[in-house]
Write a structure and sequence with these properties.
There is one protein chain. By secondary structure, this protein is α+β, with helices and mostly antiparallel strands. It has 2 domains: about 240 residues, Lipoprotein localisation LolA/LolB/LppX (outer membrane lipoprotein receptor (LolB), chain A, Clam); about 140 residues, Glutaredoxin (3-Layer(aba) Sandwich), CATH 3.40.30.10. It has 10 helices and 19 strands. A 12-stranded antiparallel beta sheet has the order 1-8-9-10-11-12-2-3-4-5-6-7. A 5-stranded mixed beta sheet has the order 17-16-15-18-19. The chain has a two-stranded antiparallel sheet with strand order 13-14. Helix 8 links the parallel strand 16 and strand 17. Helix 2 packs antiparallel against helix 4 and helix 7 packs parallel to helix 10. The longest helix is centred in the middle third of the chain and has 13 residues. It is elongated. It starts with 14 loop residues before the first strand and ends in a 5-residue tail after the last helix.
């Protein structure tokens, strides 16, 4: 008899896993930790609290066993394509991969990489980089670890139910309820096929039945088997994603390389406590210049004044976005006093500086209405401000 055949006797019966089905749970966990290769397509949707619509992804999962790796016992390549809420319709693609102490992550049109041989810290300090990439929790080995933690966590109550589908395929479902101080804060449901024990569906609800409720749903399909001859490596990734490795790799990226490309997405606080958010590919109302600067550097206020003076009298409006890498509002406002029409002052902009490959401050980026970078000046000085005007004579 197959080791999972005994589960069929529990048709449509709820069982308290911790007390009466410990052996079955152990079998499921062991099967999810299989040494077999894994490949799946996942339709993923998430509904944030107070959101107008779902955020949807199409995800491809591929993993191979790596039992000798002390950092993670499987190699993986996750690819995703995101379609945001119905209102914007924007889409973003990305991927994340781990193998043999190397991690690559392509997100927001930038390729970041981490190598254990160069720097161990990201791999050993929680949350470790290889365990914190997008959608890694959808892999069978990650699910196995989560189920194991649930079974011993006093805050969770785990139950098991078996259902036989109309076509005769057996499935098994685990439902977990998390309570903190007696309040239900999360429910999570896992559905697996039997006897193969492949994930079929995962549904998560946070803060259920409250005004803070959010949820996600992952539905798996298996159109093709995992390739037997593919090994995840840097060479394989570079062949699969040639543009990302050739043009978007941060290790060899500079701000000047942005010319001809869209500005990356960013969301930063303003000095007045609001938030300025812009998606990649979103149009500007007018041609726009971004000055990324450090307000603590001598001459910042004078540079801002010179830039403003240079742009005065233009027949075509030009917006100015001042991006301070500092979180100190007072210092930032001293450098950019009394905002004018068409100007914005953003703070805590180090993340945007990194996305743009900025290595020298101040750096000026000039974009047209479509958000395409037309000019980069780094580092900018007062004498170079005239370059801005010259570069924007034909803003469209």
């Amino acid at each position: 008899m197959h080791r999972f055949a005994k589960l069929l006797i529990y048709t449509l019966v709820l069982l308290p896993v911790k007390a009466r089905a410990e052996a079955e749970l152990t079998d499921i966990i062991d099967a999810l930790r299989s040494d077999e290769r894994f490949a799946a397509e996942v339709t993923y949707s998430a509904t944030p609290a107070h959101a107008e619509g779902d955020i949807r992804y199409h995800i491809s999962l591929f993993s191979t066993p790596a039992r000798g790796d002390s950092l993670l016992d499987f190699n993986y390549l996750t690819q995703w394509s995101r379609v945001s809420d119905r209102k914007s319709g924007a889409s973003n693609d990305g991927f994340a991969a781990y193998f043999n102490g190397n991690h690559f992550r392509f997100l927001d049109d930038r390729l970041k990489e981490y190598h254990y041989a160069d720097d161990r810290i990201p791999f050993i300090v929680a949350p470790s980089i290889q365990n914190a990439s997008m959608f890694i929790d959808l892999y069978p080995a990650s699910i196995a670890e989560e189920l194991k933690e649930m079974s011993t966590d006093p805050r969770s109550h785990l139950t098991m139910m078996e259902v036989t589908s109309s076509n005769g395929t057996a499935t098994i479902c685990f439902t977990a309820k998390y309570k903190v101080n007696g309040e239900l804060v999360r429910t999570k449901e896992f559905k697996f096929s039997l006897p193969q024990v492949l994930p079929l569906e995962i549904i998560t609800v946070n803060n259920p039945d409250t005004d803070r409720e959010s949820s996600s749903r992952a539905v798996y399909s298996y159109p093709t088997p995992a390739p037997a001859d593919v090994e995840i490596s840097e060479a394989y990734l570079a062949k699969l994603f040639p543009e990302a490795f050739a043009e978007k790799r941060l290790s060899n990226m500079t701000a000047e390389g942005l010319v001809g490309s869209p500005l990356p997405s960013f969301s930063l606080p303003t000095a007045t406590g609001e938030r300025y958010t812009r998606e990649r590919g979103e149009r500007f109302a007018s041609p726009t210049a971004l000055l990324i600067f450090d307000p603590s550097e001598a001459g910042s206020a004078e540079l801002v004044s010179e830039l403003r003076h240079t742009l005065e009298g233009r027949s075509t409006p030009l917006s100015l976005i001042f991006v301070s890498i500092s979180s100190n509002i007072d210092n930032s406002e001293q450098a950019v006093p009394e905002l004018r029409e068409g100007e914005h002052l953003l703070i805590s902009g180090s993340s945007l500086a990194r996305k743009c490959g900025v290595s020298h401050l101040p750096t000026l980026l000039v974009a047209d209405r479509e958000g395409i970078v037309k000019k980069v000046v780094a580092p900018l000085n007062r004498e170079q401000c005239l370059i801005v005007l010259n570069s924007m004579t034909d803003p469209d």
